[in-house]
Task: structure prediction
Amino acid sequence: MATTASFTPPPAPALEPPKQKRLPVWLWVIIGIVALGVLVFLAPIIALIALTVLITGIVALSKNTRTWLRFRTPKVAMTATAISAVVFFAAGLMTTVVYPSAAASGREAQQAAALPTAEPSVAAQPTPTPTAPSVDEEATQEPFTGEVKTAAGAGATADQTALAVLATLEVKGRAPKTGYDRDQFGQRWLDVDRNGCDTRNDILARDLTDETLSGPCKVLTGVLVDPYTATTINFVRGQGTSELVQIDHVVALSDAWQKGAQQLTANQRASFANDPLNLLAVDGSANAQKGDGDAATWLPKNKAYRCAYVARQVSVKATYGLWVTQAEHDAIANILSACPDEKAVTSTYATVPVETAPEPAPAPATPVNPAPAPAPAQPAPAPAQPAPAPAPVEVYYKNCDAARAAGAAPIQQGQPGYGKHLDRDGDGIGCDT
Result:
């Protein structure tokens, strides 16, 4: 009987796993550049996310809790914390490079937050404006070398109501504030009128009562009845007290710049800034509240002074050729409607027109009577006939004795009284012997 041998089939060849396609190098380069760009531009957001993970990981490790990120083990929490720390510092570094201004702002904010916060002032006196911390030091000692000059003469405001002057002002919008600077109006508080005192002390001396002086100009103390608030302020010169009384430009310099002052000359702008017409000693806090506002945006708290206030503004603008906006015009007109007889104010800087006397009318011409016609010439009278010579007087001398007695001897022939009986020798001379 034959033996049957078992046959084992050969094992099937093992299947090789499919080969994965590898990305080319150039594609990896592109992906890297894109990823880097995303990281750079999103660095602030990535830094914020990394900081959140970092803080959460520290809390999870310190308290041995899973926290809201659900770290499964402390090892996972430690790994996440380390990676987030590296990412946070890297993203922060990229932020400072890409966004330097934002980083600087953040540092400034941190420094500001670290500074102690100043407590608000609760003093009863008005708070001085922060823009003028040392008003006494602002007055210049330099002499004014220009010429006092306004844009219009005194005739623009003299003997007129404020309403009438308002009607002469041009109405249009504000010009750009481009180029405005306080120095465009000259040095602060010049001695424009050349009286030896700066403008600030001139106005303090004018508006304060019971003032005391140091020298001829410097006002040390005084009492101000503030026109803006109707309060009484005791002025004392010094650091922290001088600011309580400030000199206000009734028409603010910035407002003037946007409404025509750009076209003024340097002398006119310096005159505008120092013209007593445009200056008032007032409460410092009220002046700060006003800023560069016009009548449409700010009016004195003291309603009794509003008519005089807008009348002065109108007068200043007419004197220096400035215009008003429509809103400003309407606000001023509304106030003056309650005081239509409020007079405009004339600047002492404005020139007064010289009135020339009218030439006298020529005197009426005196009628000249015609000369009478000359009378007809009369014929000259005939020359008078010469009177006949008087007949010679007959002289007779009886003898030479008579001729001698008459003083006629000797007597020549042809003379009266000659006779031959007197000339015995016949020589033509009688009584010669």
User: Anything to note?
Assistant: Residues 101-133 have pLDDT under 50 and may be disordered. The first strand starts at residue 209 and ends at 214.
